[in-house]
């Protein structure tokens, strides 16, 4: 896993903020890789240092936990989620492209569409959460400050303006988004700390929740399902970045030490304890002073926060909603527009971004005003994460077994509408990785148990505890490694040092043919014998 040393250091200065990014998912030239691990930290932390994360931080209180129990669940979820997420940052510097394209090496040239589909659903879900929560906070704060009407038209205008701002930033591309997140990280952090001052007098760390010494047996029996469920909801936030880390880290030079890239991704999620704990603490205050806002059947964290806020904090709440929502929205939407342009090559990155943005805006308006999907968005997000996590496991284990070696040209076969290459496998599909993914994702869904929202057919087998995500993680790891041993992959997909934890077989690599190639030109394959 030694990083390449032959690539030159970046020589070009970063482009202007107002210069529209031209790159799609093609490999970023070495000279244009001017980003740093600190930039990755800013983007990943900025995308989570938001109002949406505060809403997720309130869930332990909604599940009946005390403040200290909720804090334990939050720490567990953030730490485990950060550990799962951080290895996904290395694909961008190594391959110079996004993670969906890198997945071609493990799922096949055509199998990479799985990552594109998962990132599209994740982006729509979290973009919607950011627009809804931020729009509601802006309108609520303006109502308390200026008496602004809170009718459907007001909300519609707020959603449209906010979504339009996010879309504009994404159209300009990576540099503009990085600038927005640099501002957002510092500003949102200051506003959260200001919020700590605003609520310090009302906060009581002894908030007991429902699992007290006087609770009946039926209530006590729900403690562990509630604790684990809260931790898994918190964990879903860092895991949701798995499909997007490569979108940002692809601008980091390949020679950057991988420990720094992984460390930046890990620390970016540890830093999200700031919004998580803010949400947890304010939710405990709401539960004490305005319990109607934390009714699990109809929770309204934004409304509750405004109800308990001192008047002078209304404006900071509005600013926090605007700044934080921009961070979440841009980090979600940018990567999906980028990847969508590779799935449909007739669309440029800008055209694909606009199309995905408009589709997301339609979803937001239909969900908010038509089908009342706001309550079920957490279920939607949880299900997506349950399906995304085993995909990440396949990617990370694949990276380890390949010793971090990839063929950049073979990764781009799908994007160029070509055929063949090292990652062609069976007609463009690597059934080993595909099988490990869909079997573990299906099991995760079947065992999911979200009380009051979704319970899978097998969700009650663990006494009400949601084991869907841990089970899908374990099954993906064991099944994928077993398939690599039982059904060896071609020797050519591994680097000069050979395979790790896997067997290989000598198989001829089909030549890359199609646009821009000579039909009879064979792919370059390193020599080497079968590895056991």
TrEMBL record:
Topology of the protein relative to the lipid bilayer: Multi-pass membrane protein
Tell me where the transmembrane regions lie. Answer: 43-65, 71-92, 113-133, 153-174, 183-201, 221-245, 266-287, 307-329, 350-371, 377-400, 429-447, 467-487
Q: Which residues form a coiled coil?
A: none
Q: Where is this region: Disordered?
A: 1-24, 512-532
- UniProt-annotated location(s): Membrane
Q: Report the InterPro entries cross-referenced here.
A: Pur-cyt_permease, Pur-cyt_permease_Fcy2/21/22
**Which is a Gene Ontology cellular component entry for this protein?**
plasma membrane
| Pro residues bias: start-end ranges | 1-13
Q: Which UniProt keywords apply?
A: Membrane, Transmembrane, Transmembrane helix, Transport
Asked if Transmembrane is a keyword of the record, the answer is yes
Q: Which GO terms describe its molecular function?
A: transmembrane transporter activity
Protein family (similarity comment): Belongs to the purine-cytosine permease (2.A.39) family.
State the name under which the record lists this protein: Cytosine permease
């Amino acid at each position: 896993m030694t990083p390449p040393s032959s690539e030159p250091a970046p020589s070009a200065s970063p482009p202007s903020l107002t210069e529209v990014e031209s790159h799609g998912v093609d490999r970023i030239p070495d000279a244009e890789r001017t980003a740093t691990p600190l930039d990755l930290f800013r983007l990943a932390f900025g995308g989570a240092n938001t109002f949406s994360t505060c809403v997720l931080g309130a869930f332990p209180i909604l599940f009946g936990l005390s403040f200290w129990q909720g804090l334990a669940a939050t720490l567990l979820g953030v730490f485990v989620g950060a550990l799962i997420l951080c290895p996904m940052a290395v694909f961008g510097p190594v391959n110079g492209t996004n993670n969906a394209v890198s997945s071609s090496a493990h799922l096949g040239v055509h199998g990479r569409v799985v990552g594109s589909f998962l990132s599209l659903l994740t982006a729509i879900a979290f973009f919607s959460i950011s627009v809804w929560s931020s729009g509601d906070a802006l309108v609520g704060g303006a109502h308390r400050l200026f008496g602004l009407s809170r009718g459907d038209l007001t909300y519609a205008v707020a959603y449209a303006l906010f979504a339009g701002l996010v879309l504009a930033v994404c159209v300009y591309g990576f540099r503009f988004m990085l600038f927005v997140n640099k501002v957002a990280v510092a500003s949102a952090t200051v506003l959260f700390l200001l919020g700590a001052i605003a609520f310090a007098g009302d906060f009581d760390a002894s908030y007991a929740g429902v699992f007290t010494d006087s609770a009946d047996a039926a209530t006590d029996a729900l403690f562990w399902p509630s604790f684990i469920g809260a931790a898994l909801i918190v964990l879903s936030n860092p895991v949701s970045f798995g499909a997007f880390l490569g979108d940002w880290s692809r601008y980091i030079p390949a020679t950057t030490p991988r420990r720094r890239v992984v460390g930046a991704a890990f620390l970016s999620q540890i830093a999200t304890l700031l919004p998580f704990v803010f949400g947890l603490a304010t939710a405990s205050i709401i539960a004490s002073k305005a319990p109607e806002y934390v009714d699990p059947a109809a929770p309204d964290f934004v409304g509750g926060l405004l109800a308990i806020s001192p008047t002078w904090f209304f404006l900071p709440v509005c600013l926090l909603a605007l700044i934080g929502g921009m961070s979440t929205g841009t980090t979600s939407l940018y990567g999906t527009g980028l990847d969508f342009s590779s799935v449909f090559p007739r669309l440029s990155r800008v055209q694909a971004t606009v199309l995905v943005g408009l589709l997301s805006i339609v979803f937001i308006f239909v969900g908010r005003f038509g089908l009342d999907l706001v309550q079920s968005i957490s279920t939607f997000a949880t299900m997506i994460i349950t399906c995304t996590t085993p995909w990440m496991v396949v990617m990370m284990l694949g990276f380890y077994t390949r010793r971090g070696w990839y063929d950049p040209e073979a990764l781009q076969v799908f994007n160029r509408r070509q055929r063949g290459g090292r990652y062609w496998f069976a007609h463009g599909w690597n059934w080993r990785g595909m099988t490990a993914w869909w079997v573990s994702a299906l099991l995760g869904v079947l065992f999911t148990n979200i009380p009051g929202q979704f319970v899978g057919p097998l969700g009650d087998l663990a006494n009400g505890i949601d084991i869907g995500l841990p089970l899908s993680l374990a099954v993906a790891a064991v099944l994928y490694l077993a398939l690599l041993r039982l059904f060896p992959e071609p020797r050519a997909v591994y680097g000069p040092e050979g395979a790790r934890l896997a067997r290989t077989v000598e198989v001829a690599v089909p030549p890359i043919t199609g646009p821009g190639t000579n039909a009879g030109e064979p792919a370059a394959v390193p020599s080497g014998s079968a590895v056991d």
